[in-house]
């Protein structure tokens, strides 16, 4: 195994992700940030320098469990202090498991500002993937607004509330096309054909393939808001990996990707090599106001600029949840390569997801508490048993069984909180995520929940309120997918199981950036007394600042 060093300067720059000039957060002048590529077992060392000048910064390594390095998880107020303007910080962590991952800012709404990139871990030297492929491509998916994240953030935190609306563009590897379409000549719509120079910042990266080969597409979604559906004209996709774990191979015509998820799919280039084909990403789960993101599957020897003869693949209707559920239920673990879930749990926590009000401000709440992060990072204050750093009371384990998840709440008011679910070390925890109606009638949204520090088994999905009597026996303990992100469907529940084997403080939250900003998350902590060697720089702020200065910890 190797130690791989990276030197990163993070700063703002002008850029035109969708052909419209804007300001993005860039790493070493690149947007998206540079791809980290390593082998399982390697140590990654990122020497970061905050050149944002007026704002703090942290970077989260999404999907990396941070075994023995919980301080390197890159979550502001949770695992570390924000890195101040002009200051350096060094992340050092092991990538223990091959897979498709990504990284992104985890302070305020910096992910929406464009602070993200890919992190790809190949199998260790001498090991093999359980499938064959001749080449690979990387598709990092995001959504993009022309309004600055600062304006977005102020709108979300204002009364009256101002929603950010739908994005202007869907980006593939940071590239999209606003107000024009590569496929305009197929639309009866008014969109005009894009005239983009090949070297423009918004010109699509074609996927250049040879006929009769197998390619691996690594797909990861860091969208701020949108759920996406990927389809490739004339080509089936065989899903083989989800969130850094192998899945039982399954062939699909199109697939849903929620924010925080990653997949690998295999495609075979067995179609007529006389033409090119579309790769299309359309919006799901919310009434789209954003045209699909497009790029080209370019069969050699055609030129990439040669547009496909066929129209882009038709994607399922945005509100066809039956289709989404059927795709989600097809993703199952590759049993020979996946650990089995314990058959029993020690503690089961029910988390009700509701949209609420606090003094007239619109929030999202879990068991009626909307998360606000403390100024002192939990990892430091819990490690040193400091009083007064966060709400000492444990948040509720469940919600009233009278709660009607199909209707707006009788009382929509909730409270702020910073309490922690302290989990006993090395125990099995079940989480029942329960969706409900939002503030408005007949509205229930999709929420992709992401857990830090762990993979979990997704034991099942269901409709309405989870019932111990009827739903328990339907849980899949045989081959549940092992993942770090799982969605809850409108008016439904999702059951997760994980083992508290990783000392640290871990966020568990909706991966929709505005929802997290509005309080949609909880904090888990386990075995914090076992955490060793927290660098001073990680917790030298707030109530723990003095400790690091006097004792050097
Ligand atoms: Cu990718 Cu806490 O998130
Ligand atoms: Cu959400």
UniProtKB/TrEMBL annotation:
* One protein family per Pfam: Cu-oxidase_2
Top-level enzyme category: oxidoreductase
Any single GO molecular-function term of the entry would be: L-ascorbate oxidase activity
Concerning PROSITE patterns, the annotation shows: MULTICOPPER_OXIDASE1 (PS00079), MULTICOPPER_OXIDASE2 (PS00080)
Record Gene3D superfamilies: Cupredoxins - blue copper proteins (2.60.40.420)
Q: According to its UniProt record, which reaction does this protein catalyse?
A: 4 L-ascorbate + O2 = 4 monodehydro-L-ascorbate radical + 2 H2O
The cofactor required is: Cu cation
Question: Where is this protein found?
Answer: Secreted
Q: What family is reported?
A: Belongs to the multicopper oxidase family.
Upper lineage is: Eukaryota, Viridiplantae, Streptophyta, Embryophyta, Tracheophyta
Q: Which GO terms describe its biological process?
A: negative regulation of defense response to virus; response to hydrogen peroxide; response to virus
Q: What is its main location?
A: secreted
Subunit arrangement?
A: Dimer.
InterPro entries membership: Cu-oxidase-like_N, Cu-oxidase_2nd, Cu-oxidase_C, Cu-oxidase_fam, Cu_oxidase_CS, Cu_oxidase_Cu_BS, Cupredoxin, CuRO_1_AAO
Q: What is this protein called?
A: L-ascorbate oxidase
